[in-house]
Amino acid sequence: MTNDVSDWWRTAIIDMEPGRIALRGHEVQDLIGQAGFAEMIWLMLRGERPDPRAAKLLEATLVAAVDHGPQAPSIATARMAVTCGLPLNNAMASAVNMLGDVHGGAGEQAVELYERIDAAGGPDAVSDEITRWRTEHGRYIPGFGHRFHPVDPRAPALMSLVERAERDGIVTGQFRRIALTIERHLAETASKPVPMNIDGATAVIHAELGFPAPLARGLFVLSRSVGILAHAWEQSQQGGRNKGPTPPRYRWTYYSDG
What we know:
Elements: H1 3-6, E1 14-17, E2 20-23, E3 26-27, H2 28-31, H3 37-46, H4 52-64, H5 73-83, H6 88-96, H7 106-120, H8 126-137, H9 154-167, H10 174-189, H11 198-208, H12 213-238
Antiparallel strand pairs: 1-2, 2-3
């Protein structure tokens, strides 16, 4: 009858007993000081240690997405939470919960779009699949355009790493070509250029490395948590009490709904 207890949770991630911890079959003491954090993320999610060059490419996405300033709702939430007296862990949890489909979900959505295009025939299918996507989801194409940056400086840097990785045989480049074809298609059909943004570029890397679309959002959350922690800590050092989204002298717009 003890099996109904021991089998209550079943996991291939960790094996642990007094004096021993093994993660995905690797003794933890053999990983400490030997595996980088990006490599550990890969190992924990996929059950194998990656090619160090692939881990480096994953790490680039984690570095690129760490922060985008207090105008980002998640960062603003972390700072406001601290001024309300919350400790760092609560401030971080509050901020992470802001990372939904609109603020934080574009990378996952872009991977989904790239995979659909790849399954439909690759770059030649871009036009038709973009039309289908817009019919289902609206005109917004995840991973392209930015409300703040005319050209998102993070995207070209990441894409250059993908191009290098393709030359080195680490990735195939199939999703890089799909993303660039989308970018060209949008430039030809929109009234102004719609360049790739951070979400589109990280989605290329996640797709090239074989991460399923839902994990793209999880990886973004891991990355943005660094910025969230930094801002929460900074705000805790600056002080301030009950800071709202705007200074007290500013008021909202009231209208009568009657």
